[in-house]
Amino acid sequence: MNIDHMAMYVQDLEGCKLFFEKYFGAVANDLYHNPKTGLQTYFLKFSEDTRLEIINRPDMKPKTSSLLQTGYIHLAFSTGSKEAVDDLTQRIQTDGYEVISAPRTTGDGYYESCILGPENNQIEITV
Description:
The protein has 2 domains: 1-62, 2,3-Dihydroxybiphenyl 1,2-Dioxygenase, domain 1 (Roll); 73-127, 2,3-Dihydroxybiphenyl 1,2-Dioxygenase, domain 1. It has 2 helices and 9 strands, in the order βαβββββαβββ. Strand 4 and strand 5 (51-56) form a beta hairpin. The chain is α+β, with helices and mostly antiparallel strands and 127 residues long. 20% of the residues lie in helices and 34% in strands. Strands 1, 2, 3, 4 and 5 form a 5-stranded mixed sheet that branches.
């Protein structure tokens, strides 16, 4: 069994779409808009069958215990090499995003960095 997709609520739908396209090679479908509910969504496709759905709707709540909240714990992207982790982390930092942990080998053996992407959502960049 495979995970079909992950989803997250966002305030800036277009900004988040552009972020994932620019840095992680996402390919977005056409915007879906439900005029009855106000829901708007993109499915962002990465390599293979990996997809992220980004969603905005007028009845979202700020980060709380509500099921309609923005964010997630973290989203991890595999780049294929330590050099690619270093390069992408530097590129993202140069463009003004915060690096919360620089590229390093973790205690459990992963080479990774962590950044805060749009809306302060944590993104892990790993080999």
